[in-house]
């Protein structure tokens, strides 16, 4: 379910302050734990280190990401693969 239009998108004010403190085009990584924060046009061009539960994954924000959440670009689970013994023999 999406957020109410009356409330508007959820944007963490601390993250916006960090973005405004940096110059445009600055490639320093902004560490972020708030995966639910919505990406705004002011964030385009910056690199965010989005926490996936274990470490911060670098996410370069581009124009197409506006309106999405930060957590969508940092997967929390690692896919190891299906199968087992048969999959290993067929891969060879």
Write the layout of secondary structure elements.
Elements: H1 13-21, E1 29-32, E2 47-51, E3 56-60, H2 85-91
Parallel strand pairs: 1-2
Antiparallel strand pairs: 2-3
Q: Output the CATH topology.
A: 30s Ribosomal Protein S19, Chain A
Termini, distance in Å? 45 Å
Mean pLDDT, as a whole number? 90
Order of helices and strands: HEEEH
CATH-level-4 superfamily name = Ribosomal protein S19/S15
What level of helicity do the residues show?
10-25%
Low-confidence stretches: none
What does this structure look like?
This protein is α+β, with helices and mostly antiparallel strands and 92 residues long. It has one domain (13-91): Ribosomal protein S19/S15 (30s Ribosomal Protein S19, Chain A, 2-Layer Sandwich). Helices cover 17% and strands 15% of the residues. The chain contains two helices and three strands; from the N terminus they run αβββα. The chain is elongated, with a radius of gyration of 17 Å. The mean pLDDT is 90.
Summarize the structure.
The chain has two helices and three strands; from the N terminus they run αβββα. It is of the alpha+beta class and 92 residues long. The chain has a three-stranded mixed beta sheet, with helices on one face.
Main traits of this protein?
alpha+beta, 15% strand, 3-stranded mixed beta sheet, 92 residues, 30s Ribosomal Protein S19, Chain A, 3 strands, 2 helices
């Amino acid at each position: 379910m999406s957020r109410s239009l009356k409330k508007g998108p959820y944007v963490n004010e601390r993250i916006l302050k960090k973005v405004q403190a940096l110059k445009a085009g600055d490639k320093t990584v902004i560490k972020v734990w708030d995966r639910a924060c919505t990406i705004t046009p002011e964030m385009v061009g910056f690199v965010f280190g989005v926490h996936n539960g274990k470490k911060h994954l670098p996410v370069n924000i581009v124009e197409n990401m506006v309106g999405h959440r930060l957590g969508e670009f940092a997967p929390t689970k690692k896919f190891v693969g299906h199968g087992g013994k048969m999959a290993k023999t067929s891969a060879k």
